[in-house]
Hints:
The structure is a homodimer. Helix content of chain A is 39%, strand content 21%. By secondary structure, chain A is of the alpha/beta class. Chain A has an eight-stranded mixed sheet, sandwiched between helices. In chain A, strands 6-7 form a two-stranded antiparallel ribbon. The termini of chain A are far apart.
Amino acid sequence: xxxxxxxxxxxxxxxxxxxxxxxxxxxxxxxxxxxxxxxxxxxxxxxxxxxxxxxxxxxxxxxxxxxxxxxxxxxxxxxxxxxxxxxxxxxxxxxxxxxxxxxxxxxxxxxxxxxxxxxxxxxxxxxxxxxxxxxxxxxxxxxxxxxxxxxxxxxxxxxxxxxxxxxxxxxxxxxxxxxxxxxxxxxxxxxxxxxxxxxxxxxxxxxxxxxxxxxxxxxxxxxxxxx
Amino acid sequence: xxxxxxxxxxxxxxxxxxxxxxxxxxxxxxxxxxxxxxxxxxxxxxxxxxxxxxxxxxxxxxxxxxxxxxxxxxxxxxxxxxxxxxxxxxxxxxxxxxxxxxxxxxxxxxxxxxxxxxxxxxxxxxxxxxxxxxxxxxxxxxxxxxxxxxxxxxxxxxxxxxxxxxxxxxxxxxxxxxxxxxxxxxxxxxxxxxxxxxxxxxxxxxxxxxxxxxxxxxxxxxxxxxx
Lengths: 227, 227
């Protein structure tokens, strides 16, 4: 499948590498490809610059947001949540028309200083804001409740004995994403929470996730819904 | 130990019955004991009225909020979260002085109609509001991320292979609660999330918990932090 990924951060790279390894045709989009390639300094976590990563992943292509959106039959929003609507506007509404848009993002507010404050609400969510702004896209929220490494390689943690949530208003889009998660990434427990408004709940997992990261000292953990 | 429990709802009854069964001296407090005993109709979930429950649990005593707070060496806030500060004021600040106060509550806003909206915030929590209002109490937040039956009988679900979170600013208070959870209720995995501000995170679990309840159709489930 042709997949367009918006965002060149940890999540974008992890998802792109995994999908390319599954023989999908992956194009990663960024605001300014030349600027992304020109960066020489490591990212804030000490990872090598994107150019080095791209050389290590020759199957992945780089382009602008619009290139990625035009390329993909499936699109993945892996931008920083507070910049997602902007990135999607640059991707171009026509390029989103009818596309399944897997939204992995969480929004953070840096205006109060570090650490940033999660931007969440009990009456709205980033996933719903994206769906309202681009009604012809078929938004599915998933994978936003864990670190990037767990997202794409769930079997590396407890042989995959833990849970990923999906939600969205389009059943067919949700089925496509569920298939990718289960058959592609290897998820054993995908729970369908219903319509996209459930993203209010999954986006609110971030604060306890961050406290857990602090308590456990490693990001390689996830929630399992025991029932 | 003498334990005072504020609240006669499902959580108050579950915690009271379990603690009385562990041979603690339990006094449950309510706003108006005569009115609580006079109720003849079932509660909103179809459970028999409190008077019937009390007759079935002769080891548990009933009194006012202040009676329960005066009685307890350990206090449990099992009131509806939006009414907790009021209940604690009626319990009396002097009766809270130096007491460990286990806060199990989540606040819900009924003003927008049903279902109620969880009252949560990324910059504050009910646990912290209680601690600020009663600085001499030693507030520990725990058990607020699951249904009442799971709280007090974790081994009834997957032999207890799931997680409860605790947080609070008083290490000794947290240790007392952790001991009660582990040795009393039978919790196998108690994760200390640090200071009481972590209650912002655990209180925000409610929205995804409610969606899960809808998806799974039963409240007998819980999160396990797999690591």
